[in-house]
Amino acid sequence: MPTIEDLRRLVSETKPEEAAEMTRELLAAGLDPMEILESGIMDGLTEVGDRFAAKQAIVLDLVKGGVTAKACIPLIQEAFPEGQSAKHDKKIVLGTMLSQHNIGKNLVSTLLSIGGFDVIDIGEKNSPFDFYETAEKEGADMIAVSVVFAPAMEKFTELIGILKELEVREKYPVIVGGAVTTKAWAEKEGADGWGAQAKDGVTLARDLLGVA
Ligand code: B12
Known about the structure:
Helix content: 55-70%
Oligomer: single chain
Order of helices and strands: HHHHEHEHEHEHEH
Number of helices: 9
Shape: globular
Bound molecules: cobalamin
Distance between the termini: 39 Å
Largest sheet: 5 strands, parallel
Number of strands: 5
Strand content: 5-15%
Number of domains: 2
CATH class of the largest domain: Alpha Beta
């Protein structure tokens, strides 16, 4: 019987087919999808990233890490109980700035949708203004930003500045998360909420938008 630890190793070794097969086996054995995601897939990916930071891996390894995660994550998503929450009629604009890292964003999107929110996913490499413009056009209730790449941190600060300048800061609660962010940084920059995990996005949205 494979363990989550075995999956972490396969993801770290960037083996998409084997990792997907093991994800299936772990889910079939009744293990918690969230635990498989966090301790298997995400921890394995973090190891790939750490090797890259230590110059023991190249960009191609990051690509393969992404491919491996993307082979496993849809299986996890299928295992989340669908339609758990009632629809809230609350719209949330979600995206990344500068960065093409979208695995975390996509997870946030899935969990918010399962949580009953209407997610307007504007994808990757947006400018701060794109978030504002979409929020206005769509009549959104909240903005959520995924920041996985350090240069995007400055862009987040710009977004808060734009919202203040255009006098809509109060209209849109803004939440943020992503591998390179911390709670202290998010608070300093004036975010209304920060989450370490995708599931925190749902808790934050519920609290900030006042839905059960
Ligand atoms: C896979 C990967 C890639 C893939 C991404 C594929 C894809 N489609 O996403 C590719 C190959 C494209 C890539 C490219 C690069 N990458 Co890269 N990449 C990674 C890696 C290994 C995993 C990222 C990932 O998907 N993690 C899994 C997801 C699920 O985690 P996550 O995004 O953090 O999201 C979770 C939480 O943070 C949270 N969350 C995320 N967003 C939000 C938002 C809200 C509102 C909330 C509440 C929660 C939340 O929920 C998620 C799940 O719980 C990381 C290493 C790491 N430690 O993360 C490096 C990493 C992010 N990459 C890095 C770098 C440097 C690069 C490149 C610049 C490399 C290069 N020289 O070209 C380029 C940048 C390209 C660009 N312009 O974007 C660095 C960033 C360092 C930094 N301080 O900025 C990292 C940290 C690696 C490292 N240790 O050096 N990368």
